[in-house]
């Protein structure tokens, strides 16, 4: 039986995008089979290309967010460059932009303008804080939005708030833009009409703050910062092992605590001791609880500690660094690694986490060089050799 084609095969996406939020959203669409045309500035392209050179000379953010796309380089301040993008938008199924607030509207590339001109088009505006309100024109970078959304206030130790180690606000906005496009495509299949999609980084991350937000609004107090420990469950933390590793475990109910006390700690009496028998008691006596658990695990090697915890039916994990993640046995066993072409040669990359059994594998296309597809795309929108040469000569296309 022939595998089903990628679900977005045949769809065209045009993206005037930069940094992470929009590029990560459109990469999801490319992985699912859409053709994604990435419009970049002629003077260096997407500025994420210059964030670092850690990926064999390329920027790690760019490699991560931009595989499977076609890159064209245009000066949108020149009417001829802008006209190319308008032509592309008129032929596209989806248009995505995350320019600075107001810039897309000045160019006529905002969702409302484009959808009015092209009723079947789905057009996505990604912004930091939304189109209205007192924060609409504020600069919005990931760490700034993490602060505004309160994520930093609940992450870290009691003494020190810290930002998330990944661009959580960018990723949240990207994934809501991605799911918004999919929802709009379903609606278009029913009604025949596209329409605007609006996503803000602040609103996306505020949604992800649901547990601590509701805890604060309705319970009256914010959850405490507890490092790797859980604010309202004990034991739920990382503990050092004899060989220098760290093991994180989570006891979710009192039955598990009794098994942990008997089979791992070697202290069955703790399972019924009123000072530890319930989660509320263990949280109240967290320091003593952690001393019992840490003392027992500190006498075991990491592998033995994990084996004992697994044997007792206690949820646990090895605290890994990124090198260990890259060598994770589960990812290897499930054959999740592939190679992606780039201007500097093939690089390892993970298959996207959406798996569609019975369908073709995700299309993990090449990471494009700046302007690699400019000429082919210009020809496709009807430009002649002389017109293309004039755009290049005048610095409108590269």
Task: Report on the architecture of this protein.
Helix 1 (21-31) crosses helix 8 (168-191) and helix 8 crosses helix 9. Helix 1 links the parallel strand 1 (12-16) and strand 2 (35-40). The chain is built from 18 helices and eleven strands. The strands form three sheets. Strands 3-2-1-4-5-6 form a six-stranded parallel sheet, with helices on both faces. The longest helix is centred in the middle third of the chain and has 24 residues, at 168-191. The protein is α/β, with parallel strands linked by helices and 398 residues long. The model has no long low-confidence stretch (mean pLDDT 96).
Indicate the structural class: alpha/beta
**What's the overall average pLDDT, rounded?**
96
**Gap from first CA to last CA:** 44 Å
- Total helices: the number is 18
Care to count the β-strands? Answer: 11
**Residue fraction in strands:** 5-15%
Radius of gyration: 26 Å
Note the overall shape.
elongated
């Amino acid at each position: 039986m022939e595998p089903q084609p990628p679900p977005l095969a045949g769809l065209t996406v045009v993206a005037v995008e930069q940094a992470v939020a929009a590029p990560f959203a459109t990469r999801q669409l490319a992985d699912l089979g859409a053709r994604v045309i990435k419009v970049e500035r002629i003077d260096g392209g997407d500025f994420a290309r210059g964030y670092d050179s850690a990926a064999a000379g390329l920027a790690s953010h760019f490699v991560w967010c931009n595989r499977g796309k076609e890159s064209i380089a245009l000066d949108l301040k020149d009417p001829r460059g802008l006209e190319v993008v308008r032509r592309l938008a008129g032929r596209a199924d989806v248009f995505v932009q995350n320019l600075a607030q107001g810039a897309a509207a000045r160019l006529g590339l905002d969702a409302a303008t484009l959808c009015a001109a092209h009723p079947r088009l789905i057009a996505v505006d990604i912004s930091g804080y939304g189109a209205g309100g007192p924060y609409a024109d504020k600069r919005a970078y990931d760490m700034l939005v993490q602060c505004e959304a309160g994520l930093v206030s609940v992450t870290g130790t009691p003494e020190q708030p810290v930002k998330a180690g990944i661009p959580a606000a960018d990723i949240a906005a990207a994934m809501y833009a991605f799911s918004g496009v999919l929802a709009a495509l379903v609606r278009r299949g029913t009604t025949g009409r596209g329409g605007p999609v609006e996503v803000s980084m602040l609103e996306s991350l505020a949604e992800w703050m649901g547990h601590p937000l509701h805890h604060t609004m309705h319970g009256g107090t914010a959850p405490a910062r507890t490092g790797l420990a859980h604010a309202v469950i004990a034991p739920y933390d990382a503990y050092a092992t004899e060989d220098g590793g760290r093991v994180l475990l989570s006891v979710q109910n009192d039955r598990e605590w009794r098994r942990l006390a008997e089979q791992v700690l070697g202290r069955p009496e703790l399972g019924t001791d009123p000072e530890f028998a319930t989660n509320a008691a263990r949280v109240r006596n967290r320091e003593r609880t952690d001393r019992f658990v840490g003392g027992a695990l500190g006498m075991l090697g990491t592998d033995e500690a994990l084996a004992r915890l697994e044997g007792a039916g206690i949820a646990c994990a090895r605290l890994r660094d990124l090198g260990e993640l890259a060598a994770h046995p589960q990812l290897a066993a499930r054959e999740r690694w592939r190679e992606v072409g780039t201007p500097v040669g093939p690089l390892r990359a993970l298959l996207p986490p959406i798996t569609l059994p019975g369908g073709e594998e995700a299309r993990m296309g090449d990471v494009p060089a700046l302007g690699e597809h400019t000429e082919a795309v210009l020809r496709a929108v009807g430009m002649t050799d002389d017109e293309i040469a004039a755009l290049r000569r005048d610095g409108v296309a590269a």
